[in-house]
Amino acid sequence: MLDYYQALHKLLTQTIPSLNKKRVALIEADHLILAEDLTVQYDTPFFSNSAMDGYALGGDIDACQEWKIIHRIAAGDTAQSVFLKTGEAARIFTGAPIPEGTTAIIQQENTQVNDNILTITSVIKKGQNIRYKAEELKKGNVFLSSGQYITPAVIALLASQGYATIPVFKPLTIYVFSTGNELLNPGEPLTAGKIYDANRYLLLSWLKQTPHHIIDAGTLPDNKEATEQALNNASQKADIIITSGGVSVGEEDHVHTAIAKLGKLTLWKLAIKPGKPFAWGEINNSTVFMLPGNPVSTFITFQQLVVPALKRLSGIKIEQCVPKAIMAKAMFSTHKKQNRKEFLRVQLQPSATGMDVKLLSHQGSAMLSTFTQANALAEIPEDTLVHENDYIKVYPLSYNFNT
Ligand SMILES: Nc1nc2c(c(=O)[nH]1)N[C@H]1C(S)=C(S)[C@@H](COP(=O)(O)OP(=O)(O)OC[C@H]3O[C@@H](n4cnc5c(N)ncnc54)[C@H](O)[C@@H]3O)O[C@H]1N2
Ligand code: MOO
């Protein structure tokens, strides 16, 4: 059985995005993925300007004790016809273009003005409070590369560069199935032997945070022919199919066997707890992620494996797809070594020295309620005991695709 890291590496390197592009208005681009490298259209700053409300001082500033104020320049003005010589100053405001000949800007709190003559009450250095043309971005350089996830910060930067529309990857179509004769939808009366479907609701609500087209494909019965037919039909339209349940070894588990028969089963079973029967494959041109049915196994394999792979398939750069972990101090110890890498639901709490990790009770793989108190998953390596105060690897839970 593959280890978690081997499986993650395989998923990230072998799920090759094959994406179409489209142009969208900048304001519609949040959560999408940039589809081309973009270059700086305008030097930033576009013109040298003042970082403070104050006075622009001309020429040799060390040679003067006082300056004559000869101009006034506000943001939005041009300073084209203005030139400052030694001993001359201009009243200037934050963001206003500096006149030629400016050596430094003195902020107004450090000045005195009498009869249009300026004296300063602090030391001043050459270049102080000047934001120089192109000091941040130079025209023609690539400033955002293809595969960049578009956050509000990226939108602001694109707006500042005058981009009204941008090239993005087209969203994917994702089908979500549950499997199992025991499943009912909330709202239906609960009867003997049945349970309510939790996994499809988990996956649908989580996937809604992405820009993709999400199709609620309903529940598959524990039936070989019906499973094969539904997966085959879905693969005609879906880029990605996600199922939960029916991937273990029982004779009612038909999902991975259907994929192996009709397509290709690339991976089945990992040395992780929970989530061991996780499977990944393809049918026609659809990538299929098959999650184990226990709700906690569904959650953990989705967060730790499918979200990274989905990011990659969405076109995000590989290094931005790897789940982020921090090291934090365990406030608990474990007493039994596991032969699989274990993911435990924990609470990360700030402490004087960093972050502490508190273990939550009720860790069974059917025990969904623990997730509402958990804000992270702790990774316990195989054949390892955790002792109190050990530093362990912890993955903060996140429901969006940006982190
Ligand atoms: N003989 C063995 N039995 C099992 C093994 C094994 O290795 N040998 N593995 C166990 C592990 S680990 C897991 S995890 C489960 C996974 O099994 P399946 O993926 O086949 O899932 P199901 O059998 O269909 O369901 C398991 C469990 O989860 C409940 N379930 C399923 N779907 C949903 C849903 N949408 N919402 C809420 N709950 C769901 C289902 O009723 C079962 O209780 O197999 C172990 N068995
Ligand atoms: O994935 Mo299973 O029991 O390891 O929950």
TrEMBL record:
Residue span(s) of domain MoaB/Mog: 175-312
InterPro entries, per database record: MoaB/Mog-like_dom_sf, MoaB/Mog_dom, MoeA-like, MoeA_C_domain_IV, MoeA_C_domain_IV_sf, MoeA_linker/N, MoeA_linker/N_sf
EC number(s) recorded for this UniProt protein: 2.10.1.1
Catalytic activity: adenylyl-molybdopterin + molybdate = Mo-molybdopterin + AMP + H(+)
Descriptive protein name: Molybdopterin molybdenumtransferase
Function per UniProt: Catalyzes the insertion of molybdate into adenylated molybdopterin with the concomitant release of AMP.
Organism: Commensalibacter oyaizuii
Keyword Transferase: yes
Family indicated by similarity: Belongs to the MoeA family.
Broad EC category: transferase
Listed pathway(s): Cofactor biosynthesis; molybdopterin biosynthesis
Keyword ATP-binding: no
SMART domains cross-referenced by the UniProt entry: MoCF_biosynth
Named cofactor requirement(s): Mg(2+)
NCBIfam families: Glp_gephyrin (NF045515), molyb_syn (TIGR00177)
Keywords noted in UniProt: Magnesium, Metal-binding, Molybdenum, Molybdenum cofactor biosynthesis, Transferase
Gene3D superfamilies xref list: MoaB/Mog-like domain, MoeA, C-terminal, domain IV, Molybdopterin biosynthesis moea protein, domain 2, Molybdopterin biosynthesis moea protein, domain 3
